[in-house]
Amino acid sequence: MRSPWSEIVGSVFTTDQVRSLLGSTSRQAVHDRVLRHTLLCLKTRDGHRVYPTYQFVSRDVVGGLSDVLTRVAGTIDDWTLASWLRTPQVTLGGASIIDELLRQGRADDTILQLADVAAKHWSR
């Protein structure tokens, strides 16, 4: 049975696929990026680590994502965060955070403010 989260989050890469995409980096290097909030990792119900494909562009992570992840780190579970990144935002004219990061290649003030507001709300 397919998880409802897969419909929301979309396709994912395995750790080995991320290693290859990022240039045959080690598993530890991938894990370190997750700890530094420069890469979003999701843990499946059966304990596997997966990475939403939408966070990658070319052979790297989309610009500005780490700024957003750092601001919301520890305020909400990773699956909800992954969903929020894809949720259309009125402030962005209906685009999602990830859409805007892909378009701009960076996190502008509007995106950072959205992340700050979300983190404050989730921290309650």
Describe this structure in words.
- There is one protein chain.
- The chain has 124 residues and is mainly α.
- It has one domain (4-122).
- 49% of the residues lie in helices and 10% in strands.
- The protein has a 3-stranded antiparallel sheet.
- Helix 4 packs parallel to helix 7.
- The N and C termini lie far apart (34 Å).
- The relative contact order is 0.15.
Number of helices: 7
Average pLDDT across residues? 93
Indicate the low-confidence ranges by residue numbers.
none
Q: Give the helix proportion (percent range).
A: 40-55%
H/E element sequence: HEHHEEEEHHHH
Strands, total number: 5
C-alpha Rg, in Å? 14 Å
Shape: globular
Give the CA-CA distance, first to last residue: 34 Å
How would you name the oligomeric state of the polypeptide chains in this document? single chain
Q: Name the beta content range.
A: 5-15%
Question: Keywords, please?
Answer:
mainly alpha; two-stranded antiparallel sheet; 10% strand; globular; 124 residues; single chain
Topology:
Blueprint: H1 4-9, E1 12-14, H2 15-21, H3 27-35, E2 42-43, E3 49-52, E4 56-57, E5 60-61, H4 65-72, H5 78-86, H6 97-104, H7 109-122
Antiparallel strand pairs: 1-3, 2-3, 4-5
